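Subgroup meeting minutes
Present: P.N., E.W., G.H.
Scribe: E.W.

1. P.N. recapped why we're keeping a running log of single-chain structure predictions: easier to compare across weeks, and new members can see raw inputs and outputs side by side.
2. G.H. added today's entry (178 aa).
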Amino acid sequence: MTKLSRILALAALSAAMFAAPVRAEDVKAGDLVISQAWSRATPGGAKVAGGYLTIENKGNAADRLVSVSADIAGKAEIHEMAMDNGVMKMRPLDKGLTIDPGKSVKLAPGSNHLMLQELKGPFKQGDKVPVTLQFEKAGKVAVALDVQGVGAQAPGDGGHSGHMDMKKMPDHSGMKMK
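Output recorded in log:
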């Protein structure tokens, strides 16, 4: 390797190390960065699935996730889970979900999430499920949910998390929604 080649290789490596931390799977829409979009594999016959992701607002004004759609689902909603008199309840967020400037909102199991209902087929580990997020300001944004294992608690977990308590984990895969 010539001295010039080594210098160019070192320069390229240095540039990569100090580049903005937007990963390849991240989606940028206006001031928003959507990352870690994932779902769980569903057992055969399941009619619902959850979708999870993180939305970061790098701008100076709030934006709002107002709806979600997916060709694989007959119905898709933004849901919240909250304790009500000691009972965990789930309901659609009819007014959407606000992402304040300089803040991040994480949609995760047991918390706010995307609810995909009336599934037209199963989610299989390794699949990428396309969904469209509709924002008040950023508009329509296409995102792919990376399908993890049935018991996954986070992207890249694969459903083999050794510290997971399946009794405490909310699992929407077998629920029937009206």
